[in-house]
Structure formats: structure tokens, C-alpha cells
Amino acid sequence: MSNCGHHDHHVSSDKVTGRLLAALAVIVTFMVIEVVGGIISGSLALLADAAHMLTDALALALAVAAQFFAARPADKRLHFGYRRAQVLAAFVNGLLLAVLLVWIIFEAVQRFMEPVQVASGLMLWVAVGGLVANVIAFLILHRPGEQNLNMRGAILHVMGDMLGSVAAIIAAIIIGISGCMAIDPILSIAVSVLIGISAYRLVRETGFILLEGAPVNIDVTELGEGLVDVSPEIIGVHHVQISQITPEQPRLTMHVCVERAEASSSALEAAKAYLESRYDIHDSTIQIEVGTSCPDSVTKVESAKHSTKHESHKD
Fold first, then answer.
1. I need a labelling partner for 103 at 20 to 30 A (CA). Which of 54, 89, 188, 225 fits?
2. Is residue 33 classed exposed, middle or buried when 0-12, 13-18 and 19+ CB atoms within 10 A define those classes?
3. Maximum average pLDDT range among 15-24, 253-262, 297-306
């Protein structure tokens, strides 16, 4: 197995791991405060937010473990290494969010049926502290254009906590002014729905990658046509298959047809250069074929460029 012409194309995991560890420390500290405050005040919104912080702590710990695991090099059993551990961690985090949201909604329904008195003053101050902690954790983790799915999964948990804290603050204020206890479970359900949408998207995206789905931003037909046009030696492209180790690390295999065997080297060089410059694909395996007959197929491969060449000669 050769990696000739390939190079690792990945972001440094050290900074990502450091940010995750810092956010984990913040979340754990304020989680303890919210658990105590929620029990004393009797607030479901506060307890729900504290429970969410607990899952955040687990999610961040999982994300940190995945970062360390993903840094391991490839071996004889895992030829592409452990980088997809990040995607798997994000997938699991999405599922954990879904389970948590179901529990919060169930508890909210119970509160509708049997309202519980809430100490709005304590609830308000603890919720404000939780919001501060979540904002700090979010600022530590968030970077514009973040592609690391592991980090995105962790950020999603923290964003859920931010919304939960905001909901708890609003609920505390309304309860303190009007005494309406129903606002506590109502806002809890509203936050659950908002986070549920994001959790669904995360699970769908990570599941798609784990199922070897192609990047949605790459049109295979357009890619093939571009390769046919990039070099006069290339007369056809077929069997194009693209998957993702991680979102920032696409992987491609394909067959490229040339008219002459002597053109194989230059065609291969041109194809790889085009994939890197146009699609940022650095991990590609290209099978060069002479003529239009593919050894992996019983049928003859048609070449759009080959036909175009002959038509132009006739004209």
C-alpha cells in the first residue's frame, strides 16, 4: 500500500483539544452550582439546564477522548487511521442530546399536570451564573467556519445550555412577577424543540459520513467533465467514488482513460493537480486505463471527450 503523492491534510488537533479541556473545566464547575441551586429552588428549568450541563460534561469528555484517539497513526488494521473517531464522537453526542431532550419534555409534561412551587429569586441568580459559564465555554470553543464535527457536536451541547439558561432566566422573572408556574415547563419544551432540530442535523450529517456519503458540495458529473477538459491526454473519466474520512478530508477513487500508454504519467499528474487545486482533495487513488475498455466492467466505457474530438476532426 503506497501513499506516493499523498500528504496529510488536517487541522492541528492540539489547539482543538486544549479548547475542549478548557470548556470542560468551566462546564463542570457551574454544573455543580446549578444542580445545588435547582434542588433548593425546585425549578425544572434550572434542573433541566443542570442535567444538560452534565451531558455537556460527558460530551466534552468524549470529544477530548476522540481528539486523542484521532491523533493515533494508521496501522495494519486501520489503514486510514483513527481520524473518523471525531465523527463517531459527534454522532454519539447527537444521540445523547436526543435522549436528554426526551427526558426534559417528559418532565415538563409532569409539571403541567402537577405544578411545583419555584423559588424564583434563587433560580434567577443561578441561571445567570449558568449563562455566564455557557457563554465563556462557547467563546472558548467557537471559531468561524468550524469544520471539525467533533468540535461542532461539543458546541451544540454548549449552545443548548446557553438557550436553557436564557429560558431559566426568563422563567424566573415571569414567575417572580406573575407567579405563573406554567412558564417553567413551557420554556423548557421550547428550548428542547430548538435544540432537537440542531441535534437531528448533527446526527444526520455524521451518520451520512459514517455511511460513506459523498461531500454534498462536490458534483461528481462536474468533476468528471472538468478532468476531461484539464488535459488533452484524458479522454474519459468513470467509476468516480468520493467519501469522507472527516468533512475536511475527502477521499476519492476513480478510473481515468487515456489514448496512449505513454500519456499515463502526465495524465495522472494533471488529474491529481486538478483535484487538489479545484476540490482540495489530497487523498486520491486513480486507475489509469488505455483506451475506453475498463477491466472492471464487461461493457465499453463511453468517452464524451473522445467523441467530441472525433466530431471536431470531421468538421
1. 89
2. middle
3. 253-262
